[in-house]
């Protein structure tokens, strides 16, 4: 486990994360956020784990065209249910989800008296699941790809400030900078619960992949970002990941899910 205590104030973090195996579910995450790393490429366990999924989750898995995508979705949802079951002390199959208009899942209120918060993201064969309480949180992971038109995507999804920051990077840093910016923006959007209804050009995050993540401004207000905690996570080579929390500092604990 790697425990990270972030300083108060305008928090900035870049984590060389150590992921330890949890032999039991950690204590309820009061005053901290637990982040779980999940590998999604173990198809032998899918048949057993799928038994915990709800009918709508099974139907959703079946709509994926490629078998690997079906496996990854099933593995991710099964791990999510198992992890939440440990915190809630109820069977994984009995967990019920409700969905915000943005599509963000949350626990059914009657099963969640202590207001456990969670968020999940997966890309290719990796997923990250963040679990906390009291404060909204979001997490995003993306596999770094060199075959995307980052200039066109930045024009469509990044703010003017972010596009300028990306353009200022060297050629070597521009692709990782794009994915660093993308995961930071996505983690923040998921934490707000607004999704794409929050205009992407109305806020800016830092773009340098090797420097501390920061929410620089919201609608031009540079003070608004100071109440948010952002941290980059070193999940595995070839991926970028970020967690966002609506408080100015937090403590992270990181685990690998078996």
Task: Kindly describe this structure.
The chain has 258 residues and is of the alpha+beta class. Helix content is 28%, strand content 27%. The chain folds into two domains: 18-133 and 252-256, 4'-phosphopantetheinyl transferase domain (Ribosomal Protein L22, Chain A), CATH 3.90.470.20; 141-245, Alpha-Beta Complex (Ribosomal Protein L22, Chain A). The chain has six helices and 14 strands. Strands 1, 3, 4, 7, 8 and 14 form a six-stranded mixed sheet that branches. A four-stranded mixed sheet has the order 2-12-13-9, with helices on one face. It has a two-stranded antiparallel ribbon with strand order 5-6. The radius of gyration is 18 Å and the shape is globular.
CATH topology description of the largest domain: Ribosomal Protein L22, Chain A
- Class from helix and strand fractions: alpha+beta
The span between the termini is 14 Å
Main CATH class of the largest domain: Alpha Beta
* CATH architectural arrangement of the largest domain: Alpha-Beta Complex
Helix segment count? 6
Q: What is the CA-based Rg, rounded?
A: 18 Å
Strand proportion, as a percent range, falls in: 25-35%
Largest beta sheet, briefly? 6 strands, mixed
| SSE string | EEEEHHHEEEEEHHHEEEEE
Spatial shape: globular
Amount of helix:
25-40%
How many structural domains does the protein architecture include? 2
Say how many strands there are: 14
Low-confidence stretches: 1-14
Mean pLDDT: 88
What is the CATH homology-level superfamily of the largest domain?
A: 4'-phosphopantetheinyl transferase domain
């Amino acid at each position: 486990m790697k425990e990270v205590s972030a300083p108060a104030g305008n928090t900035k973090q870049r984590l060389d994360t150590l992921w330890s195996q949890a032999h039991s579910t950690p204590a309820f995450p009061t005053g901290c956020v637990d982040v779980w790393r999940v590998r999604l490429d173990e198809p032998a366990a899918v048949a057993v784990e799928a038994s915990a999924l709800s009918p709508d989750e099974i139907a959703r898995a079946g709509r994926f065209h490629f078998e690997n995508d079906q496996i990854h979705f099933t593995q991710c949802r099964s791990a999510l249910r198992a992890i939440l079951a440990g915190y809630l002390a109820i069977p994984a199959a009995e967990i019920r989800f409700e969905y915000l208009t943005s599509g963000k899942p949350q626990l059914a209120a009657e099963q969640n008296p202590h207001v456990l918060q969670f968020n999940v993201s997966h890309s290719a064969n990796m997923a990250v699941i963040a679990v906390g309480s009291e404060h909204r949180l979001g997490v995003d992971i993306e596999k770094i790809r060199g075959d995307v038109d980052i200039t066109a995507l930045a024009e469509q999804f990044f703010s003017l400030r972010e596009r300028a920051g990306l353009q200022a990077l060297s050629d070597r840093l521009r692709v990782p900078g794009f994915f660093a910016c993308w995961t930071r923006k996505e983690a923040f959007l998921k934490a707000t619960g607004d999704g794409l209804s929050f205009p992407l050009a109305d806020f800016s995050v830092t773009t340098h992949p090797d420097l501390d993540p920061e929410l620089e401004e919201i609608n031009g207000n540079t003070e608004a970002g100071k109440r948010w905690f952002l941290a980059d996570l070193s999940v595995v080579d070839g991926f970028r990941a970020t967690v966002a929390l609506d408080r100015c500092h937090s403590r992270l604990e990181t685990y690998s899910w078996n």
